[in-house]
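# step 3/5: fold
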Amino acid sequence: MNDGARMRGESVEQWIMSNDTLVQRRRSHFRYNSFNPGILLAALVLLLVP
């Protein structure tokens, strides 16, 4: 169970990193939207849950 949580945490970290690059790439196209902090907060919650 702990290994599963660890694997999920690593995948979440990779998703955060890839999503962060997408956010930076999108900032050049249009303004910063309010949903981006919500995505990061949800990812942080997923990291804290296990």
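# step 4/5: annotate
The longest helix spans residues 2-29.
# step 5/5: archive (pending)
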